[in-house]
Amino acid sequence: xxxxxxxxxxxxxxxxxxxxxxxxxxxxxxxxxxxxxxxxxxxxxxxxxxxxxxxxxxxxxxxxxxxxxxxxxxxxxxxxxxxxxxxxxxxxxxxxxxxxxxxxxxxxxxxxxxxxxxxxxxxxxxxxxxxxxxxxxxxxxxxxxxxxxxxxxxxxxxxxxxxxxxxxxxxxxxxxxxxxxxxxxxxxxxxxxxxxxxxxxxxxxxxxxxxxxxxxxxxxxxxxxxxxxxxxxxxxxxxxxxxxxxxxxxxxxxxxxxxxxxxxxxxxxxxxxxxxxxxxxxxxxxxxxxxxxxxxxxxxxxxxxxxxxxxxxxxxxxxxxxxxxxxxxxxxxxxxxxxxxxxxxxxxxxxxxxxxxxxxxxxxxxxxxxxxxxxxxxxxxxxxxxxxxxxxxxxxxxxxxxxxxxxxxxxxxxxxxxxxxxxxxxxxxxxxxxxxxxxxxxxxxxxxxxxxxxxxxxxxxxxxxxxxxxxxxxxxxxxxxxxxxxxxxxxxxxxxxxxxxxxxxxxxxxxxxxxxxxxxxxxxxxxxxxxxxxxxxxxxxxxxxxxxxxxxxxxxxxxxxxxxxxxxxxxxxxxxxxxxxxxxxxxxxxxxxxxxxxxxxxxxxxxxxxxxxxxxxxxxxxxxxxxxxxxxxxxxxxxxxxxxxxxxxxxxxxxxxxxxxxxxxxxxxxxxxxxxxxxxxxxxxxxxxxxxxxxxxxxxxxxxxxxxxxxxxxxxxxxxxxxxxxxxxxxxxxxxxxxxxxxxxxxxxxxxxxxxxxxxxxxxxxxxxxxxxxxxxxxxxxxxxxxxxxxxxxxxxxxxxxxxxxxxxxxxxxxxxxxxxxxxxxxxxxxxxxxxxxxxxxxxxxxxxxxxxxxxxxxxxxxxxxxxxxxxxxxxxxxxxxxxxxxxxxxxxxxxxxxxxxxxxxxxxxxxxxxxxxxxxxxxxxxxxxxxxxxxxxxx
Length: 940
Fold this sequence. Notes:
Helices cover about 35% and strands about 20% of the residues.
C-alpha cells in the first residue's frame, strides 16, 4: 500500500464508505516538519509519509462548493455536516451568537431528534459543540423547539444552508505578511484567493482576475490581469513563514482553481530532457463539473444511505442487525485502510457515544484486532457479505438499506441483464392482417387498464380497510364508483381474448373465417358502458374529495403518501382516479384506426363506425370534466414537489410548462427549475432534503411582464430577459428549441394574464423573491448572519423519496415539458411484449412493457402486479440502428441518452410503428400551435 500513489489510499477510503462524490474530500497529515499538508495523489505514499506508524492521516473536506445543492448524495452532505460540526468545535467556523445557536440547534435535532427541554439541556451539558457554549444554551433550546418533525437529513441540509452564507465557511487561514509587513491571513475558496485580517475578510481576488500564481522561496506571488479600473499593481506579493508553507499554499490554490474552474483534469506537461525549472505539481482527479456530470448521468452504482439520529439512547451493535442475502455490500479491499472513528465525527449511519471526534485513517496495514474506538463504541451496520459471514474485524460503513434503493431518474437500477430470461428467435406464427394487431392492442392495453383499476379497487381499498384513516363519505365516493367498472372490464377483456384466440386459430379453427374482426365486440361493450357513465361522472368528485380531505387531515396525507411508496402504485395515486376517463380516449383512437384501415365494404367496417360514433359521443360529454381534472391533478402533483409555497391550487390557475433553465446572477449561471402558470412564473432550486423537493426562491407575476431575447447583451447562448413590474431576471435555455418553447408559452401566458382581472396575489409562503441582477457582486448574495434564523423555510414531513417524478427527470435531463405534452401523453399510452437488448449483450430478453407518463415500465409478464424497473424517456433520442451496430433483426428501434443505449424489437410492422409513434411523442414535444390544432381536431 505504501508504495502505491496517494490516489490509491483516497480511493480505498471512498470505496469503503461507498462515497460516490469523494472528489470533494482529501487526506491531510503532518509532514516531517509538522506542517499539515494534503496527501499528493500522484506521488507514492512512502515518499510522503516517512514514519507511517506515528502519523495520523485525516479524511476531511477539501473543496467546499458555493452551493450545497450541488452535492447530489445524502452521504456526502452528511460528511460535510460532520466537517462543519468539527470546524465549529475547533473555532475555525466563526460567526455571531445567533448563527452559532441556530447551527447547533440543527446538530442537536440530527443527533437526538425532536425537542424535549430537559433532554436538550442534559445533552448540551455533556456535549460541547463550540467554545463558550453555556452562554448560548437558552438560544439553542429556543431554536431547537422550531425544528420538530425535521429528519436528520433535513437537519444536515439546513446546517449547510446556514453555514454556506457565513464568511468563514470552508476557510482555512494561512498566516502571511503583506509588503508593508502587516500580519494578514491568506485563504483560498471556490471563488478565488481571499485576504483576511484576523477573521475579517479585507480583500478578494476572483479567479477571473488572476493571470498567474507562483512562489519564490517564501514569497507568494499573484499576477493579475490588466484592469483599467483597478488601483492594484500588476503583481501582488505576500511573505509567508517558510518556503514549505508557501509551496503548500500554492499547491492548494492550484488545486482549487482546477477543481472549480476547469472542465476536465489538466493533462501532464512533458518532462524536460535535461533539467527542469519550477514545480511539476498539477491537480489530479475529476473536476467539479466532471463529478456533477458523472452523478447526473447515473454512471455509478446507487447504494441507499439511510441517515438516522446519531445519538439515540438505545445503541444497537453490529451483531444485532438482521442480514439479507441480496444486500448491497460496501467494497472491502484486501489491503484496505483501517478506518477508526477517533476524535470528532460519528461514522456515517452509525451512532457515536463520545463527542468531539474526528474521522482518522491509519496509514499502516490493518492488524487482526479491532481499533480501540470500535471497542468503545459499537456502531450500527446493516450490510453483510455475499460470500458468507462478515469478518469479525470488519470496519464500518454507511448504514445501507438494500430494500429501499433510490431509483435514479436517469436509469433505473433494475435495467440489467438478470431481469428476465433470454430469448433469441422466439417467432410466433401470427395473422398478418393489420386489423389483427389493432385488435391485439385493444387486448394488451385493456390488461394494463384492468391492473390500474385494481390499484384502486383492490390494493388501495384493502389498505384503507386495514387502517381507519379515511372518512366513510370519501370511501363511498371512491370505491362504489370503481368496482362496477372493474367487473365490466374484466368481462370485456375476456371477450376480446376469446375473439383473438379464434382469430389466431387457437380454438374452433374451422370457424375462424367468421371471427377475423373486432368491431362487433367493441360495439357491444361500448354500448354496455353507457349505463356506467354515471360512475364516470363521479370520478371528478372523487378526485376533488380525496385532495380536499388530504388537505385537512395530516393522517390521511401520510397514509396516501405511504401507499404511493408501494411498488404497485407506480404512478401518483390521483392519476389512477383519472384512468377511466383516459381509457375512453384510447377506445376512440383505436376505432379511428380500424375505420381508416377497413374499406367501406368490409364486414367489420359498419360495426367499427357505429362503435366510433358511440364512444365519440361519450368523450364529448366528458370533455370539459377531463380537461379540468387533468389540470387539477397536475397542480396537486406539483404541490408535492414544491416547498415554500402556500396556495398553489386555486380556482382559475392553469399549469402551462415546467422545466430546467439557468438563471444568471452574481455567481454566474445557476441551474433553476421554473414553473409557468397562466398568472405567475415560479423559480426554484433543488432541495436536497430527504423529501427531494424544490424550494421556491421567487415569483414573477405575468401581469405587465415583457420578454426579450438578450443573447448579444449578456454573451450567453439562448438567453432571455424577463422584465416584470417589480423585478427582472435573465435566464438561459439548454438549446435553441428549448428557448423557443419557453418564449412561445411565456408570451401566451402573458397574453392570458393581461386579459384577466389584474395582478396575481402573493404565492410564496416565506421565502423572499430573489431580486438580484447579474451585475451585482457576489456580496449581494450574502445574507446577514442576524437574518439567518428567519431563513429556514418550514419543512413539512413529505414523502421520503420523490426522486423519480417528472420534475426531477426534467432537472436531470435539463429539459422541459408542457401541459399540452402531458395531454398528448395521456392519449399515447401503449402496452405489449417487446424484446430488449443492451449495447454490449448478446441475447434478447422478452419483457412486458407499458408506456405511460413519458416513461417505459418493464414487467417480466403482464400478470405481474408491479414493474421491475422504469425508464423515463425525456431527453432520449429515438432512432433505427445503423448497419455498423450489427443488429440483424426486423422491427428494431434504439433508445439513446448519453452513455445509455437500449435496443427494442417489436413483433410486427404495425406494433413497431405504434411504439415509434408513442415514444416519439415523449422524446420530442411538438410546438404548441401544431399540438393545439391536433387536439382541436379530436373532440377531447
